Amino acid sequence: MAEELTRIASQVRRDIVRMVTLAASGHPGGSMSSADLLTALYFKVMKHDPATWRRDGKGQDVFILSAGHMTPVYYSVLARAGYFPTSELASFRQFGTRLQGHPSVRKELPGVTQASGSLGQGLSAAAGIALGKKLDKDPSTVFVLCGDGESEEGQIWEAGMFAVHHRLDNLVAITDWNGQQIDGPVTSVAGEGDLEAKWKAFGWNVIVADGHDMDAILEAYSQALAYRGSGLPTMILFRTDMGHGVDFMAGTHKWHGKAPSAQQCADALAQLEETLGDF
Amino acid sequence: MKKYIDSGKKDTRSGFGAGLLEAGKRDSRVVALTADLKGSLKMDAFADAFPERFIQCGIAEANMVGVAAGLAITGKVPFAGSFAEFITGRVYDQIRQEVAYGKTNVKLASSHAGITLGEDGATHQTMEDIALMRALPGMVVINPCDYNQTKAATIAAAAYDGPVYLRFGRPSVPNFTPEDQEFEIGKAIVLSEGRDVTLIATGHMVWEALQAAETLENEGISAEVIDIATIKPLDEEAIVKSVLKTRCAVVAEEHNMAGGLGELVAGVLARRFPVPVEYVNGADAFGQSGTPAALMTAYGLDAPHVVAAAHRAQERK
């Protein structure tokens, strides 16, 4: 299973590089660091069905992208999972597209449950959906992906208190802990400190795992789902590298929001195996 | 002119509380959220009747708006309530992304609006909230005038599918519109017909406009009084129809000039039928501590100021 997921993730990374190159804009860095954990989520962990997906999420697991700039990985995974044709990935960020720069519900792109882009808000929306599911006795799970830079927003921690207070053990938050943000390493930009200690102090179940080791990713999700019944929400902190998969993009903030040139795109694609056919 | 009787002063926030309870009885999807202001928002009766549908969010308004959006996504009809400043200015971007742009069926319950919040002073008094909410594409803005109308508006907001900003106040004010009325979103209410000047008012200023109309009648001036309970979408036809007859207007609101009802009406009339328009509003100012009555007088938000504005409008005809 892990091997198959790794092959899908390789294609997702190719999609990311090609999408931002075609659009001459977008955010490859965080998309590359989240490619493995998001591929595992949609292709193995989540109980979902693209054919019957509805925005209200009734009876299915729900995913919210809080770090809304990570649309390249999000759209690629959605398309590869069958929510819309992969050919549509070529329209990313073009005028009239359903694949807006940041997720929009106004274009009614299947799979997108809520708008995001202004940071720090998705955890609150996910908590609201989780609470709605509790009220409806809907046993499915709500997943939400945040960035570590994004977690400098105070609202993340408001939501952190809320989810514990309201015992939302059907909520699994994921942090792409890549250590980078637009202006540089997180440690140099803001005093975010020890995220693991902070989430534990807020009362969450906390799991730390390697976000580029598919077996470790699956184990982390499995553990998170096993926390159902604990009365507490779960945070998975995935240690990742921004730009992972392409040597000249990896481990730096410089590719947070920058598109490759044609040559850089070619150099990147040479490092990423085409496993499912390019869009 | 038609006379209105105050059946006994009540606060409009209690009208909201009564409407919320009724909406909750009618529709099990209705839920209520607050940021540590359950009592101030008069949500106690709802919380007692439907404890599982009352969600205490603590002093964290930004999160509350996001949670409300999430609940709306699952099909609930959430009313998220706080003081007007804290459910608009403090969380403007959250409302913009999660509610307006995100197209979620969230009702923003805005209490203690305007200067009549009173003694707490300027940090808690907003005279800018209508401007902020009006600016958001697709946001319905409702500002009822008394207890009965606020109750009816709350029930109507629950039944309406889409984002609503529902604005009401803290002090006890005359309750003069019919009990158990039907509230129609987007419809202005002509309270009294007249020939010489149109008094266009919203919220607490509607009663003041009615008092002003009585004074004007004694002076031999016939004033038409229109209650703009829904600011957006605005009932342009009602305004234009009235002004075609009276040829001048006064717009009265417990809000500043910038982005308020006055500018909105002036814009409509400039396009459709330009006539002299005078304003009764908070101009371009912050509030301060004081009793609601003292502040309304000090900031020129009372019947005598409406009368003076009507005189000015008439003279410019």
Concise structural overview:
Chain A is an alpha/beta fold and 279 residues long. In chain A, 39% of the residues lie in helices and 12% in strands. Chain A is built from 9 helices and 7 strands.
What does this structure look like?
Chain A is an alpha/beta fold. Chain A has one domain (2-269): Rossmann fold (3-Layer(aba) Sandwich), CATH 3.40.50.970. Helices cover 39% and strands 12% of the residues of chain A. Chain A is globular and about 50 Å long. The mean pLDDT of chain A is 97. With 317 residues, chain B is an alpha/beta fold. Chain B has 11 helices and 14 strands. In chain B, strand 13 (249-252), helix 9 (261-272) and strand 14 form a beta-alpha-beta unit. The longest helix of chain B is centred in the N-terminal third of the chain and has 15 residues, at 12-26. The A-B interface holds A 55-58, 104-106, 113-118, 120-133, 135-136, 138, 154-155, 158-159, 161-162, 165-166 and B 31, 52-53, 55, 57-58, 60, 62-76, 78, 93-94, 96-98, 101-104.
